[in-house]
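Quality-control log, excerpt.
Job 1 of 2 completed; input and output follow.
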Amino acid sequence: MSWQTYVDSNLVGSGKFVKAAILGQAGGVWAATPGYTVSNAAHYRARLPLTFIVPTICITPTSPSPCPAFKHNLTFLLSADEQKAVLNVFNDPASAQASGVRLAGQKFFTLQVNERSYYGKKAADGVVIVKTKQAVLVAEYAAPIQAPEATPVAEALADYLISVGY
């Protein structure tokens, strides 16, 4: 099975996660949800990590009037710095506990971190990060999904990857 299949079928395909990536512990992205990619920090800061609708005002000679909203479909970009920070969560859990983790420009507050797993929260959404022998799974879920529904999915995939040497 390809790494992309693990992301598409086992994580996002489970219906519990909205985006996910598998990072190599030695660096690099092995697979990711389309658009949830690594870029340099300057590039990702120029984009907003979400799809949104911007209401605008049209100025006419007589008065301002509402214009049709413009929908912006922007990609979720994980910066190279964020990728390094994710990999460092397990080397320095105290720092992750104190500062949280940023993914695609969004800060997640730490709920729990140990030598294998990191659980973070941002409003009603959250993230599960799990370390295997050679990889790190990063999976974000969104409300109404809750941590007790999402966490076992990512942990089970990590258990499987560990059992086959990854």
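Job 2 of 2 completed; input and output follow.
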Amino acid sequence: MRSEPTLDELLDEPIVRMLMASDRVEARHVRRLMDEAQHRDRAAWRNPPRSPEPCRINAG
């Protein structure tokens, strides 16, 4: 059972289409943006940044 709509389902909603039209946004641009974000997310998981060295404080 799926609880959240897909991107295609959201982009097919009449109210979303009206809002996008008023903002001059095209569905293909939204799809491209989401694809790019997905690729960046996957790349980040493949090559996670290394944690910085812990900060050492001299109390003496």
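Post-run check on job 2. The mean pLDDT is 87.
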